[in-house]
Amino acid sequence: MKKRNEASNHDRRSVAQSQQQDGNSLPDTSPAKKLSVTDDTSLSTSNEKLGNAVSDRSSTTTTASAENEVPDYCTGNEEEDKRLKKLHHAAKEFYTVQESFLKYLKDMGEVYPEYVTEFGKRLGKDLLIRQGSQLHIVRELQILFEQLIGFHRLLLEEFSSRLDNWSSLNPNMADVILKYADFLKICKPFLLEKTRFVQELTRLREENKDFDNATVAVRFQFDTVLIRAEDFETWRGGVVQQLDQVHQNFMRYKILMMSYNRYLEPGSEEQMKTLDAIAKLEKIAQSVNDSMGLPSNEQLFKLYDRFQCHFDVFYPGRRLIRQGEVFKQTRKEPQPRYLVLFSDTLWICRVMSGFGSSGLFDMGRSYRIPIETVRTESNPHEDYEQQLYIKSKYKSLILIMR
Fold it and tell me: C-alpha angle 332/336/341, rounded to 5°?
């Protein structure tokens, strides 16, 4: 596991490699070409300076999943061997997810401010200058993310040490969560200020075109893939959206623990510890949600199950706004449906009623409508006051609200 330990200590990754990979699939929007530069030497020097801002990142980042294959178990019982291997995969996922989150924290807390600083220098500007007596919002974020990086690096090392000598015959991952769950509260100051951060970042990007260009261009330097290549225009709001990753991370730990628990031996000491860890995570996450005025985790997890894991209710930036039973108007008679409205998506779901699947959404017969395509109409006449006409290029229908 030497490579994993080395990987967890590296804070940087090669910019040249990142630019080469991204350049093949993304539009060429490097800041150098956005600016009016007439001197080729000046252009080359400027690109070199921007690259140097993050060029000390290691080019040998290795994930746990890439480094070691999960071994086969041979107990003489085929079903037991399958369970043990699935448990090993579940344990390994703690490291994989944690490593990805730590990369995200470094991208946002180190790479982003460094890149914007260098971008401004080539323009002869300080893009992160104080706003009156206040630090620039990116500098505020940098300070908060530095605190998060230290703790989450420690947590990654704890997961790594468990996997160094892992055997599903003697699982021991629950102790890590039980020991460090309370420290997850370190994220609370950031989360309580997140709305202000979003508003301020949005305002600055609208008012300062250079800052906006730097924010768009920095995606080439990120170690984590935050926005797909074809979603380039979406990236203009990507940094704001990614601030939600910190909050969503609370839910990830519980999901990991629930998956891990699924393959533990029933009634074992490790399972008892795991159930305690899940309860502890739920209590902490609910405390944060209450402080932020958000729906309970219980609501979200129930929806996660009803979508049968085919829709990510925990996606960064996604907010549950409303859910409930409605009727769909048809030529014959109204048919029951279940409406789930998120900040970015409207779902009109058909609910299954068969044995063993009651209450789950029939995903093959449900409709997902991007919220930006939705238009609604209502008729003020008393005979139609409960009807809502939903129009979209994906689906149009009349709902009867209950």
Answer: 130
The answer to whether residues 277 and 181 touch, using CB atoms and an 8 Å cutoff, is yes
Report whether 324 contacts 337 (CB < 8 A): no
First to last CA, the chain: 58
Q: pLDDT tens digits for 349-368?
A: 999 886 666 789 999 999 99
Sequence-separated (6 or more) residues with CB below 8 Å from residue 46: 32, 37, 122
Last residue of a domain, one of 228, 259, 294: 294
Q: Are the CB atoms for 273 and 179 separated by under 8 Å?
A: no
Which residue range(s) make up the domain with 117?
Answer: 2-294
pTM score, whole prediction: 0.64
Q: Specify whether 287 is located in the same domain as 347.
A: no
Handedness of CA 50, 53, 58, 63 (dihedral sign): negative
pLDDT tens digits along 83-95: 999 999 999 999 9
Q: Which of 350, 252, 280 is nearest to 308 (CA)?
A: 350
Q: How far is the C-alpha of 67 from the C-alpha of 358, rounded, in Å? A: 41
Query: How many structural domains are present in the chain?
Result: 2
